[in-house]
Amino acid sequence: MGVQYEFIQCFYPVDKKGESLFSDVEIWVDLFAEKRLCAYDPQTNDVKLIRKERKKLEMAIYEIVNRLIMQESESVFSVEIMESFAQTLNELSVMLKEKYPEKGAIEFGSLGFEGGIQVAIDTPAHERHAEVIVNRLAEEYGDEFFEDLFDE
């Protein structure tokens, strides 16, 4: 049997301090990680990256996102701020694809922000790990989730 992967969803508030237009916005990142790089919380049934990998990911994300907060404080035009947000998401997407390449120990899956809007998706990674996603959702929501989904 080959290497087994887990489906991991990470959420990061854009502004941790809550002092900007983005204080209520979260960025979410989907990753696929080898089981050896995962930590499990049996009480909440959460799967996440081990602390070392989680910290590296968080640092990389906030290195880019913090520039957005700085740009926001320097701008008075909301159009400029939204352009900066779009550029920031694009930068994050590029960085995550480079940092977590296809068929690596950790693979980039997708990136989005509050409300479930996907900005970037690595379709081959999702196709390769479709079974991992289904298993994770079944664990989290139960088999009824799929029964309800396909009954409609």
Topology as a string of helices (H) and strands (E): EEEEHHEEHHH
Beta content comes to: 25-35%
Strand-pairing-aware structural class: alpha+beta
Shape: elongated
Question: How are the strands ordered across the major sheet?
Answer: 1-2-5-6
Helicity level: 40-55%
**Overall average pLDDT:** 84
**Low-pLDDT stretches:** none
In total, how many beta strands? Answer: 6
Radius of gyration, in Å, reads: 17 Å
Number of helices: 5
Specify the biggest β-sheet.
Answer: 4 strands, antiparallel
Distance from first to last alpha carbon: 36 Å
Account of the 3D structure:
A hairpin with a 4-residue loop joins strand 3 and strand 4. The chain has a four-stranded antiparallel beta sheet with strand order 1-2-5-6. 48% of the residues lie in helices and 26% in strands. It has helices spanning 51-74, 78-99, 123-128, 130-141, 143-151, and strands at 5-13, 26-34, 38-41, 46-49, 106-113, 117-121. It starts with a strand and ends with a helix. The protein contains five helices and six strands, in the order E-E-E-E-H-H-E-E-H-H-H. It has 152 residues and is of the alpha+beta class.
